[in-house]
Amino acid sequence: MAAFQHFKRRSIIPLAGVGLVAYYFAVLGPLWRRAEGLNAPLQTAWQKLSTSLDQTNVTAIDFLHITNQLAETRHAIALLENAKQKLAGRLELSGAVRSKMNQARFENFDYSSDRSKQINETSMLAKTCQVTVEPASSMPSPRSSAVPPRYLH
């Protein structure tokens, strides 16, 4: 009986080894091939990302640097939007000019005279504050090259 136990132990170990080899080829082999197939698009995307970041020779991408750049870009966009809103407020016509423009008879002469008054006031204020105003800021807007409309008789 002791010989039978010894024989039983000796036959279980090779059977367990054969079972492990069969498990490897039946389960782990196909799983490994599937993982390699899924890894190919990931490697392609990783290569594109590292190329777009000019980090082609590094093994790990610096995501902290990317996050900081993104935060700086968002901050710059917010500053740009703020400046855009301030500029729109400055370029908006005054209520008196707008009411004149909405009248039935508005002429470019009226706008030009109001504009020249505004330029004179700005230059006087600049002189009192001892500030230099760039000449381009007081230049009149370009003339319209549109042909005046012809009326039907």
Q: What would you say this structure looks like, in words?
A:
There is one protein chain. The chain is an all-alpha fold. It has a domain at 2-54. Helix content is 71%, strand content 0%. It has four helices and no strands. The longest helix has 51 residues, at 2-52. The N and C termini lie far apart (129 Å).
**Helix share of residues?**
over 70%
Order of helices and strands: HHHH
Oligomeric state = single chain
**Which radius of gyration do the C-alpha atoms yield?**
40 Å
Span of the ends, CA to CA: 129 Å
Number of strands: 0
Shape designation? rod-shaped
Given the helix and strand composition, which structural class is it? mainly alpha
Low-confidence stretches: none
The largest sheet is: none
Helical stretch tally: 4
Give me a quick take on this structure.
This protein has four helices and no strands. It is mostly helical.
Properties at a glance:
mainly alpha, single chain, 153 residues
Topology of this protein?
Layout (H helix, E strand, L loop, with lengths): L1 H51 L10 H29 L3 H8 L5 H21 L25
